[in-house]
Amino acid sequence: MTSPLLSRRNVLLGGLGVAATAALAACTSSPGSTGTPSRTFGTPTPIPPSPGQKLIEKTLTAKPVTLDLGGRQVSTWAYGDVAPGPLVRATAGDFLRLTLDNQLPADTTIHWHGIRLRNAADGVPGLTQDPVKPGAQYVYEFTVPDPGTYFFHPHVGVQLDRGLYAPMVIDDPNEQGGYDAEWIVVLDDWIDGTGTTPDAVLKKLIADGGTASSGDMGGMDHGSMGRMSMGAGPWGDAGDVTYPFFLVNGRPPTDPEVLTAKPGQKVRLRIINAASDTIFTVALGGHRMTITHTDGHAVQPSEVDAFYIGMGERYDAVVTLKDGAFPLVARPFGKTSGGQAMALVRTAGGAAPGADVTPPELSGQVLIGSQLQPAESAKLPAKAPDATVDLNLQGSMKPYRWGINGAPFGKNEPLTVTAGQRLRINAVNMTMMTHPLHLHGHTFALPSGLRKDTVLMAPMQSFAIDLDADNAGDWMIHCHNIYHAEAGMMIALEYAK
Ligand code: C2O
Ligand code: CU
Q: I need a labelling partner for 284 at 20 to 30 A (CA). Which of 162, 351, 367, 392 fits?
């Protein structure tokens, strides 16, 4: 683990293999492009739903908007007039026809994060589709096979760090329910329109090999020892960007969303981390939460005071509400400015907690999600791997350069698999930062059997992750820190043709 006595710079250089550094130094992917070897796809062939399949249709308009963050006006891009954008909800087995209407001044796409869908609808420009040009529309058609909590966002540049994200919930037709209310809680870190844009932030990260701040927040260099010593907990140095705001459902803690219910009611929380560069610790003041699912898959119910959630991860929890007004807090891990994200849970009158409240649960038993145990029903059937590949996460802050298997995306060799194989990926984080590793089109199993599509990997941590190659196509595996991904920390997983 990182010693607080070492400067971050030294730690990073010390933590990198010489060969890896040299290989990464040889090529840097250019900002604003995904660096994908360019293929062209043309207009997708429309496919009809199967007989008897329910059809869900919706149009999502990506466009410039001005949002109000507790009195502060920010101009940004969003799906419709607000961020998060509109909920897409369906039942497992339904057929979705979702039209992206691009009113942005830039190319975009939509990726349906965590959904095990047909490859052609996965939303990765250059790999599964052409980028959608300004003024153009694109129709995504796919069946949603698995219930769970998901979200969607662009797969172009660092557009996720604007307001372009929205929740997606796939209901389980066989689930009993057993709760009185459901709250969808979308977490975000916010910088767009505060004197800078995510594109400018990335440019500055690459130019400086250091921190990027919003234009009006001053330049707080979090490479300093002060910040290193803040990183008490499992994740070491957790983020690159200094954000002025953290949001729950698009609102800052000074103007929080109020979730109302009655005392004694049982609520299902669906918590989604749509942030680009922030791991949160989530707690509900005065309550313990029972975690029931992660990334859509059932786990053995686990009662916790708080839990960590990495970028791209989702956790479902149930909680029986007490009488009063309680803060639902998401505290950015390892970040010293910008406050925290908070919503208010109210079952009675009484004074609301302040924006900077620290529920004692935050310093209680904090769950690391990869330590959850899978529900029996969620396990992959036991089977020895048919093939094994290595996946090494590499890079550094100074210079700002990230890659997988010795090179940034576009220069690294795609991983390959044959349909029907059980593939083992030996994933190793060879850096001194934490990375949420995300796989498209499949879920993987950790050695415990826990099913995830996004897993936090602490500095120098490794995981052997298994997947069944049951969804042919070309898929992405990448870090869900969007700045790392865009700087090269991505690799393709291709099925042998
Ligand atoms: Cu949510 Cu490839 O990403
Ligand atoms: Cu990363």
A: 162
